[in-house]
UniProtKB/TrEMBL annotation:
Record GO biological process: transmembrane transport
Similarity section: Belongs to the binding-protein-dependent transport system permease family.
Gene source species: Vagococcus allomyrinae
Localization (cell): Cell membrane
Protein name: Sugar ABC transporter permease
A GO cellular-component term linked to this record: plasma membrane
Alphabetical keyword list: Cell membrane, Membrane, Transmembrane, Transmembrane helix, Transport
Principal subcellular localization: membrane
């Protein structure tokens, strides 16, 4: 059996360590240095210290994008996990051959690229909704993506539709691993399906919540392509998420050093939130 004290263990791990060093650790260290300069993408100019970080916290557009991204992430985490758990409960029922069909249909949106998804939903909001508005005379279908509020919910609908099926599969795998003996014992004791779900299934799904909450949180925070394709941050940057704000600062304004400082701040925020989330859900696993 391999242990971390054996040479074979480290030899087998070496390719992964080299890859991580090349694509993660070295770029992170170089980027951290560039964030302390006035780098413009071509030449590294003057060393400015923490000036870029101070400017980032004074940049109202960056702060607004952080607030928008945080609000978007909270709403999406709740909706995605709620819908995914509901779908997982549905497809783990005895539905015969329809079980596989439903799982495939619910998972399919996750196979579509973010840019394509954005353009699909842009067509739905701008064309299909407008046609429904003309047909029914309801103002609800008019002007989607033209206001900050509808733009926000448009992004939420797109992301929830994309990610729910993926999270559903994780819940399905954990639901299928619940011992049948426990469920049969609950049924013999007269527990209703709702009582079985709340008292038995939910506590045993805590490891699944750790995984799904982390995945939805990290993916919601770093969303860019859907934001670009659906709203492009409009109107007037009111739906601009943090990843887009950083990208525009780097490649539109050519302020690479300043954008890098924003990226480092964003990374630290995501890491802190992820650590807090994982520590809380892990404690719930133990208590459950």
């Amino acid at each position: 059996m391999l242990t971390n004290k054996s040479t074979s263990f480290w030899l087998l791990l070496l390719p992964a360590l080299i890859s991580l060093t090349l694509v993660l650790f070295i770029p992170l260290l170089v980027g951290s240095y560039y964030s302390l300069t006035d780098w413009n993408g071509n030449t590294v100019g003057q060393f400015v210290g923490l000036q870029n970080y101070v400017k980032a916290f004074q940049d109202q557009g960056f702060i607004d994008s952080l607030v928008f991204t945080a609000k978007f992430s909270v709403v999406c985490i709740v909706l995605i996990n709620g819908i995914a758990l509901l779908l997982a409960t549905l497809v783990t029922q005895k539905l015969g051959r329809w079980t596989t069909v439903f799982r495939t249909v619910f998972f399919m949106p996750n196979l579509i690229g973010g840019i394509i998804l954005g353009f699909i939903w842009q067509f739905i909001f701008n064309k299909a909704f407008e046609s429904l508005g003309d047909l029914t005379g309801l103002g609800f279908f008019k002007g989607w993506l033209s206001t900050p509020e509808t733009g926000f919910w448009g992004l939420v609908m797109l992301f929830v539709w994309q990610m729910s099926g993926y999270m559903m599969l994780i819940y399905v795998s954990f639901l299928n691993n619940i011992p049948e003996e426990i469920l049969e014992a609950a049924d013999m004791d007269g527990a209703s399906p709702m009582q079985t779900f709340i008292k038995i299934k939910l506590p045993m799904l805590m490891p699944a919540f750790t995984v799904t909450l982390f995945l939805t949180l990290s993916n919601a925070f770093k969303i860019y392509d859907q934001n670009l394709a659906l709203t492009q941050g409009g109107p007037y940057n009111s739906t601009q998420m943090t990843a887009m704000n950083i990208y525009n600062e780097a490649f539109a304004m050519r302020k690479m050093g300043f954008a890098q400082s924003k990226a480092i701040i964003f990374l630290v925020i995501i890491v802190i939130i992820s650590i807090v989330q994982i520590s809380i859900t892990r404690k719930k696993e133990i208590s459950a």
